[in-house]
Amino acid sequence: KKIDMNKILHEVKSLMDYQIKEEDVNLFISDLPPCKGDETQLLQIFNNIISNSIKYKKDNEPCIIRVSGKIEFNRSIYCIEDNGIGIASEHQEKIFDLFYRIKSKHNQGEGLGLSIVKQIIERLDGEIKIESTPDIGSKFYIILPSC
Fold it and tell me: What is the pTM of this model?
């Protein structure tokens, strides 16, 4: 069904309020276009990616996360951009594999989150892409059917 993504991101921000304040995160959310999907699954997707942005933030720098969106060719494209530690190019495709974890001091979890995110997005007839540069940050693009 048609999903109000502004409502979804407001809910994500609300659910993560304690973590956002505790980690001194600056979360900026632009006005987002709607998409077709499932509220619960979209909430899980954005919660996971934003949580990862916080988890993999730089130690001595304020964490900045920006969420934006646009519509192109009947697809709603959302970008979650952070200024975290980034991901080396040789890991970028593998991070969506089940149980894949990059060895680092930030290593937490079981390596399931992004694999689940990718599976959910594909079930919603979408795709996920990443652009990342070590020590600069990452951009995750979530591409879903628009309304």
Answer: 0.89
